Every structure is written in C-alpha cells, then in structure tokens.
Amino acid sequence: MTTVEIAAMTGKQHKNVLRDADRAIELVNKSHGSDLSCQIENKDATEGTFEIRGKQYRMLVLNKHLVFTLITGYDTALRYTVIGRWIELEQAANPAFSSQAITETLIDLQTRVDAMAPAYDEHVRKGRSVGYSWREACRLAGIEHPDKFLALMVRLKKARKTLHGHTEINPSYVKKGYVTVLKPSNLVVKANGGHLFKVTSKGLTEWLSANAGEINTAVNTASRPKAVVDEHGYTIAITGDNTEGLTTKAIH
Fold first, then answer.
1. pLDDT at 252 over 50
2. Which of 240, 53, 44 is closest to 152 using CA atoms?
3. Which long-range contacts (CB under 8 A, 24 or more apart) does 117-121 make?
4. pLDDT over 90 (residue 36)
C-alpha cells in the first residue's frame, strides 16, 4: 500500500504520512542496531514517485507489516479504514484469502494495540497534563543531542539562562502551545534539569518530531569548529566542539 493511498483514506496530508513512515522505518532499524537481518529491507518499503500537475513527488510503497506498524499510532476509525482496504487488496491478490485469515489478522493487530495501550495512555496523559522533560521529549522525537540543541537555542536567543542557572524558553514557544512554563520554586524544576519549562504533546509532535532531521543537522553544523572574526576580518576566537586549547596565533 502506498503512503499516498494511506493519506487519501485517512484524510492526512501526504507529507505527514510520509514523515511518519520514514520515522517508523528509522526507529525499527535503530532498535535492531547492527542486526542487519532484522532491519527494514527494500522489499518492506520501496521508494516511488507520483505525479501532480506534471511534477514528481516522493512516496513509499509499504508491505503489510509496515502498514500495520504505521497505523497503530492512528485512532480506531482510521485503523478500521486502512485495514479494510488492506483486506480488499489481499482478497484481490489471493481469492483464497479466507474470512479466517481476516479474523486472525484483526485479532493480531488488536493484540498489538492492546499491549501498547498502557504505555500509550501514559504518553498521552503526560503530553496533555504533566508534560515531558526536555531530554525525554528530545529522545521521543529523535533529537540526537538535546543539550547541544538547547545550547544552540540559547545562542540564537530562542532560550536564555537565568542568573540562577535555570533555562527559560522564548515566550513564542509558549504561545504556540509547544511548552508550558514552570516556576523556579516548583519542585519539578530540579528533576527537570533546571529547565523552567516542559514540552507539551503538541510541542513533541508539531515542533520536535516534525523537525527532527533539520534540528539534528543544525546542531551538527553548529558543533563544527569555526573561526570568529572581528570587524577588521581578523580571527579572534575559534568555537565549536573540541576546540579547547586551539589558538588563533598561527592564523594571525
């Protein structure tokens, strides 16, 4: 089944379905590490394109296992729609595909969903009420270096350090509903790494997860050694990871 068809059936934007599929593949492969035999292969997810007004766009063709993996994160109505379509495809490809096979497929999927339900409910509860700590949210979103990312945000004035060493987030993120603010006196602050904010469910999905690739690239780029020059063009400092001890003397 293609990501285009899944998007059409669920009413989701194709770019979001494609993002979810890419993320699912990335997480599966990461969970298996160096065990290549368990990683996603070309037969599981095939690259393809589709055309809109003469322009080509990327899509994925997913096998049954990946389709079911993808839609476990969708609500019941959307899962029902996608599974119904998959059953039609199975019956068209194999007329011997019996009602027993359909029943077993549905039971298997429901068993998986039921097993995930407690963890998912806790995930939803945290996102709606308590919120996620910075590192927890970054881990769930696939942000590789949470501390470096936050340091970059401070450098870009999207966050700041207080006189007491706490970290405050720019109010624009609060207005967008991405974070909730904590008071310095809140006992959670210490356990939260000294951050005066927690990430909401919206912040996790629409900010961090949706932009994880770009964020990781920006952090890696910012971590590379680079020269800082004054108004005359002279190098006055070197910034970036592992630059301690480097001198600008030779450059002058």
1. no
2. 240
3. none
4. no
Maximum pairwise Cα distance, the chain? 79
Q: What is the DSSP letter of 37?
A: G
DSSP 172-228: HHHHTTSEEE--TT-THHHHTTTBSEEE-HHIIIIIIITTHHHHHHHHHHHHS-EEE
- Pairwise CA distance, residues 231 & 40, whole Å: 52
Structure tokens of 169? 């987030």
Tell me: the pLDDT tens digits for 195-212?
889 898 888 888 998 899
* End-to-end Cα, the chain, rounded Å: 61
Instruction: Please give the Cα distance from 92 to 95 (Å, whole number).
Output: 6
Say if residue 193 is exposed, middle or buried (CB neighbours under 10 Å; 0-12, 13-18, 19+): middle
- Please tell me the distance from the alpha carbon of residue 221 to that of residue 68, in angstroms, as a whole number: 36
Angstrom distance (rounded) from CA 161 to CA 154: 7
Express each pLDDT in 81-93 by its tens digit: 787 787 777 777 7
Task: Give the model's pLDDT for residue 14.
Answer: 93
Nearest to 216 by CA among 157, 143, 160: 143
* DSSP for residue 112: H
Residue 190, amino acid:
K
For residue 11, give every residue at least 6 positions away whose Cβ sits within 8 Å of its Cβ, in sequence order, or none. none
- Average confidence (pLDDT) over 33-40: 52
User: Residue 174: its pLDDT value, please?
Assistant: 92
Domain locations in the chain?
Answer: 3-130, 134-223
pLDDT of 168: 92
As a whole number of angstroms, the distance between CA 127 and CA 134 comes to 12
